[in-house]
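Quick log. Single chain, no ligands specified.
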Amino acid sequence: MNPLIRPIAHYLPGTCLVTHRGRRSGKEYRTVVTSYRHGRILAVALGHGETDWVKNVVAAGGADVARFGRVLHVTSPRIIPAGGDTSGLPWRVRVQGRRVAILVADIA
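-> predicted structure:
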């Protein structure tokens, strides 16, 4: 599904395209995720756990995110464990955060 959605993901409501580099290979990757924005914060519920793209973004200290046709740079990525403090995030993320981890990053 990812290759089919990738060309239009940054135009679809609720989805974004995360551009990141591999930790070992240095190769550029693009991953489609569902994101939530609240002010200068971007949050992604990690329903599949800490996958490679999450590890890449955390290791690099940031990534580029295309949402609604705009490219945003995110910095200071951090993971809030399931059941952690999600106050200040959109309600949809708070509900998901009860059962799954959340990746939170600041929009530069």
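The longest helix spans residues 52-60.
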